[in-house]
Amino acid sequence: MIHRLLPIFLVAGCSFYGLDDAQNAEADPSDLDTDTVNESPDSDEADSEIPEYWSIDALWALENGSVVMESSAITIGYWTSTPSLLCEQTYALASVDALPAPTEIPAFGWWQLTVEPSASEDDTDDETDVAGNCDGLPPQPFQFGIGAYDAQLAPALNDEGLPVGEGYLYATYAEADGWSSPFVFGIAGTSANLEGEEGVIVEGTLPDGVYHAIGLYLLPL
Fold first, then answer.
1. Strand, helix or coil at 15?
2. Burial of 199 from C-beta contacts in 10 A (0-12 / 13-18 / 19+)
3. pLDDT tens digits, 63-77
4. Residue 70, SS3?
5. Are 214 and 171 in contact (CB under 8 A)?
């Protein structure tokens, strides 16, 4: 069984990584700017500063069927139980290995990866007043996949005024230690997919290209 969790669109009132940003981004990890509107947690409430969820956005470059590590990056946000965004960090890929996908995942690509902080990440994000560098690392290794669109994503897309993606968008999936099953958490596509100029595959291996993965739902830590 595939699960989804807390929707970011209910938390922030806008997508965690804007569709326009995804359409215009190049294959450069520095383009992984997020567009989250959030309220800063109350520093007087210690519990509010404990991260319980995380969100994933990614720039994912494939060439000759393999991940181009230097052109790919993962941006992870850490969220409280409220949920409010505590901080976000762009990570470079430290390792990535292609694996067979779990049987319940209709994946066209599935990878196990570890990450490390990106050397180019700023200390703070002045625009949102959110710390740019988070302490520690996310749960890892974790698994990330791009596969067939899942109808569970439709409520988030509809609430954001985004086109429902069947036929033009892929879904993103993740799995980590301690989870009972994988989660479907967002959408992905090349610029041509996101602009509705090119359809998605329905079977086989994910084609080469630069994929913009946009998180729509929060994942458990």
1. coil
2. exposed
3. 999 999 999 999 999
4. helix
5. no
pLDDT at 220 over 70: yes
Q: How many CB atoms within 10 Å of residue 49?
A: 15
Output the CA angle 75-77-79, nearest 5 degrees.
Answer: 170
Mean pLDDT for the chain?
Answer: 77
Name the nearest CA neighbour of 57 among 3, 115, 10.
115
| 211 close to 31: Cβ distance less than 8 angstroms | no
Length of the chain, please? 221
Longest CA–CA separation in the chain, Å: 52
* pLDDT (tens digit per residue) in 88-110: 889 999 999 999 999 999 999 99
CA dist., res. 146 & res. 187, Å (int): 8
The arithmetic mean of pLDDT across residues 162-186, rounded, is 86
Tell me, what amino acid is at 39? Answer: E
